[in-house]
Design goal:
Helix content is about 25%, strand content about 30%. By secondary structure, it is of the alpha/beta class. The chain folds into 3 domains: about 200 residues, 3-Layer(aba) Sandwich (Rossmann fold); about 55 residues, Roll (SH3 type barrels); about 80 residues, Beta Barrel (Elongation Factor Tu (Ef-tu), domain 3). The strands form 4 sheets. It has a 6-stranded antiparallel beta barrel. Strands 3-2-1-4-7 form a 5-stranded parallel sheet, sandwiched between helices. Helix 2 links the parallel strand 2 and strand 3. Helix 3 runs antiparallel to helix 4. It is globular, with a radius of gyration of 21 Å. The relative contact order is 0.13.
């Protein structure tokens, strides 16, 4: 009897080709699109992001083309609780969260897997570019994809239980090959562009979204230098992120960068060229994919942003369950709230949230 797979389908080409490949491999595939956005955030896909009404329709059309069942499941309450609300709270606290990581962690691989088991499916699958393998000792491991669109950074929080029941059918393919397969199969999304934005925030207006969501207008405050000298006025801390240079709304004789956000005193700390780099960081809320127990000191290549290049670093655990990450070379825009993910070659060792 073939295994039953519940495939998360976003309406894009990646998850559509994942459905095609699973079907060719003999799995019994059911496509499932998560309805994530509450009604007030639903819109057409022309407005950017993913998980829109148009995307649900695209996923349905792909499933019809492949002759497989398509389900739409309502996860709007979970999405607001686990993604939107923490996003707003983190920004208000002066941190810059990555909502896509929370969506993967709590929705796509926790809630989706839970519902899949309830419905009698053997595993879940998605169109992520990453690789899951089991080693000789029986431990499930996550590897970066050889493709240019590797997405393992956003998957570092997966548990052993989740990895054991997850398939990434396109994990070893390059994007042009995925599109070629979609065109050959005459899938209606073969030429659909990739979504680029946070799905519930239009036009990258994070501050505007947080103002509308919370009903609060965060007050203006001071720009200060590292010594606390006032340099000017900022328009509210949700408008800024560490490493930012453009859009400060104030001019200086030299380039100035956001080096820290002090939410307690409503201050944005600015510094000159060079101050946007940090030699080390502290991270918490750790997940170690490659180890049963938190490791002792180890050498890794660490990524501090999705688009960042992995950098040589030393990870030193402390008594509080956190780690210091000390880089061989200073890293640009190390941002509290973002993830730091640890690699050893192609293996995802683990990762956590940057605290400071």
């Amino acid at each position: 009897m073939s295994k039953k797979i519940l495939l998360g389908m976003s309406g894009g080409v990646d998850s559509s080709v994942a459905a095609l490949l699973l079907q060719k491999q003999g799995y019994e595939v059911t496509g499932m699109t998560m309805r994530l956005r509450p009604d007030e955030y639903m819109c057409s896909s022309q407005n950017g992001g993913c998980c829109s009404l148009d995307d649900i329709d695209d996923a349905r059309r792909v499933c019809y083309r492949l002759g497989i069942e398509h389900l739409v499941m309502n996860f709007t309450q979970e999405f607001e609780r686990d993604v939107i609300d923490p996003f707003a709270k983190e920004y208000q606290a002066g941190r810059t969260p990555n909502p896509c990581i929370n969506c993967n962690r709590y929705l796509k691989f926790e809630e989706m897997l839970r519902r899949a088991k309830q419905l009698g499916f053997d595993a879940v699958a998605t169109g992520h570019y990453a690789i899951v393998r089991q080693n000789e000792a029986g431990r499930w491991l996550l590897y970066r994809s050889p493709a240019g669109k590797d997405q393992s950074y956003a998957l570092y929080s997966l548990t052993q239980e989740q990895l054991a029941h997850t398939l990434f059918p396109i994990g070893e393919l390059e994007k042009p090959e995925v599109r070629r397969l979609a065109q050959e199969a005459e899938l209606p999304v073969a030429k659909k562009p990739d979504s680029q934005e946070i799905c519930f925030v239009e036009d990258k207006d994070y501050a505007g979204f947080i103002r509308r969501y919370t009903g609060k207008e965060l007050p203006e405050g001071d720009f200060v230098d590292a010594q606390g000298n006032v340099l000017g006025r900022h328009k509210g801390i949700t408008h800024y992120t560490v490493g930012q240079r453009k859009g400060l709304g104030i001019s200086f004789p030299q380039p100035m960068y956001v080096t820290a956000i002090d939410a307690e005193y409503n201050r944005i700390i600015l510094g000159p060229e060079g101050s946007q780099y940090a030699k080390e960081l502290v991270a918490g809320d750790l997940n170690w994919i490659a180890f049963d127990e938190p490791p002792t000191e180890l050498l890794v290549q660490a990524k501090v942003r999705y688009q960042a290049m992995p950098a040589q670093a030393r990870v030193v655990p402390d008594a509080e369950g956190q780690v210091r990450v000390i880089f061989d070379e200073p890293q640009r825009a190390v941002t509290p709230g973002q993830a730091v993910v640890f690699y050893q070659e192609n293996l995802v060792v683990g990762g956590g949230t940057i605290l400071k």
